[in-house]
Amino acid sequence: MRPFRIRRAMRHDITTIDWRQTASEVALVACALAARGWAPATAGNFSGRVDESGLQIERRQSPRAVSTVTATSAPLLPIEPPAASAPAAAAGNGKGRKAYVIGAIALVVLLLAGAGLFFFPDTLLVAERAAPQAGAAAQAPQTLAEVEAKLTGFDCALLEASMSGATAVIRGHVGGEADLKRIDSEVGSVSGVQDVDDSAVRVFPRPYCSVVSALAAHTRHAPKTGAPRIALKGDVGEAYAGEMLLVEVSAPAFEAFVYADLYDPDANVVHLLPNAGQTSNRMSAGQRMVLGDDALSGAQWEVVPPLGKHLLVVMASESRLFERERPQVEDVFGYLRAVRDGVAAKPAGARLVVYYSMVDFLPKR
Question: Under CATH, which number does the domain 135-203 receive?
Fold first, then answer.
């Protein structure tokens, strides 16, 4: 025997029976069974009885075959689909199943009509739930296209959208908190969107949104394991003015030329690796190093204004990105153009992966 579970918890107080709800619940059970081909023809005769234990729903297949469910705690209905009806439903390419649903609802309506109860709005609602949502499926591509069109209106942002049912799922980044709030209102106004999930959208204030957008192609496909990594030493999220900056860098799962950079709010970039004290940036697979902790021969950096959010970026490439040494500090946008040119010139197939993290520079403690 194959059980079927009615996943609805319903209890009725017989002193205050809501007949409208009761009729809807009988129809829902009938619809669920008929949709699976378990209530064809005369087997779709359903009735309901309310007593102290709750709503009793009966399915009468023949004078001697009656199945009963008490709709109070999601019980099991020990019903096997009729052997003769299953092939017929399949042969009808879904039409037979639809007919069974309509037939079951009609029988419930007739049953209730015999008791002097007419609840056509509820019955039509049940029929609408049971019918395939062909219209919604056809609308989905158009809805997604309209959502994507809305996302093109955000400046210094890189956003992607997908639909999960009636929920628009947005990923990527924007340039400010105001833009993050705007996503909900803009996308939520699209016909067919009932909810907006922007939990995967990060905020990168200017100029960092430009940096992340320029490097997006190399972060989007970075492996989840074995990617390069950059963070403040100890994996802390903040550094304090007047103290020395210590940065931990990890190479990817392949030997690479590693470039570690610090971007500041004034659109400057400080090159941490290679640097004046360590011109070689070739690292073996998985190698780790701490930058800024060698007071004798390595470069060091003091945390100074501008304070606030800073962006740490590490790029790991199988080939060199730059033929010449770059200045220790330079303009962000000039550097990004040089990165673009270096990527274009690298050998075909040479891997390049990027990782970044946001940190805070705070006043002296």
Answer: 3.30.1340.30
Task: Name the least confident of 33-37, 92-96, 153-157.
Answer: 92-96
Please give the C-alpha separations between residue 205 and each of 71, 161, 175, in angstroms, as whole numbers.
55, 21, 5
Q: Which two tokens stand for residue 281?
A: 């940036």
Residue 217 confidence (pLDDT): 87
Geometric angle at alpha carbon 133, from 130 and 139, rounded to 5° = 165
Residues in CB range of 58: below 8 A, 6 or more apart = 46, 47, 48, 49, 66, 67, 68
pLDDT in tens, 65-86: 455 554 443 333 333 333 443 4
Residue 259 pLDDT exceeds 80: yes
Rounded to 10 degrees, the C-alpha dihedral 249/254/255/260 comes to -30
More confident residue, 79 or 250: 250
Please tell us whether the domain made up of 216-362 is placed in CATH 2.60.40.1930: yes
Is pTM beyond 0.85? Reply is no
Is 138's pLDDT higher than 70? no
Q: For the chain, which residues make up each domain, given as ranges?
A: 3-132, 135-203, 216-362
Sign of CA dihedral 112, 113, 115, 118: positive
> How far is the C-alpha of 16 from the C-alpha of 1, rounded, in Å?
37
CA dihedral sign of residues 172, 175, 178, 179: negative
Q: What's the rounded Cα separation, in Å, for the pair 282 and 285? A: 10
Burial 144-161 (b: 16+ CB within 10 A, else e): bebbbebbeebebbbbeb
Q: Is 120 helix (H, G, I), strand (E, B) or coil?
A: helix
